[in-house]
Amino acid sequence: MTQPTDIRRVALALAAADVPVLPLRAGKVPFGNCPACKGNACGGRPNMKNAGPCECPRPCHAWAAATTDPRVLTSPAWASVWREAAAVAYHPGGAELTVVDLDDAAAVAWARENLPATRTVSTTRGEHWIYRGAMQSANAVRPGIDIKSLMSYARWLGPGSGIMTGLPDAVRALVVKKLSTVRPVAVPALAAGGECRHRTPTYLERGIVMAEQRITEAPSAVHTTVYRTFLAVLSTHGRCGCLTDAHMQRLFAAAQAKGETPRHCTDAWANAQAALGL
Predict the structure, then answer these.
(1) Whole-angstrom Cα distance, residue 182 to residue 263?
(2) Which helix (DSSP H) or strand (DSSP E) does residue 129 occupy?
């Protein structure tokens, strides 16, 4: 049986190699949010540098708790966590990596025929193929295949074998194809009836374009960027009824293209409304 000290030793070794790590509970799941962050009360802000005011002392916000800071990993607040931990996970995107998670023999066979060779790690039922380079994550891009990179975590199962190669377009294309099938999500009701202080429709359009660009160009902390962008848009345009479902669908689409789920989009929007009293 793996001991907590062994798990933490692995985590510290990975952190020293600039791989952000986090502990997992039994069942390969991360530790839940702290009481102060239950129900996304903090706006979903991850406990990461320059990512918001949340200062959770224990691992919080799942993948976003991953860190390379040995002071955090060895802090008293995390000591009890390591005693409960069953495994170590890492944030591939934070290490500029992408993991193609092949969940069964059929998925492995498909990858061997369609993807360039790279470093591989054996899993319980299949393999992890690891490439250099980060991208948005997505589940079920093909039967038995998930992409784990930005805003995701993968269980550490050892260094694997083979030479790691650069992220190929064939892997990126899997997510592009997946996103093309995303259905529009229902947008929560918008504020209406207030006084409009916008001189022309161009002002609103420019604001939406800038918001889309801010989300699209976010290099990291995407979840926080989405929330803050929604907050900014609502604070400027949310009280006069100028915003339409079409505007919000554009913002939701930009967020989903960066890896956000429809539920994350809806939660971030609702939290921004609540923060502004809308």
Answers:
(1) 13
(2) strand 127-132
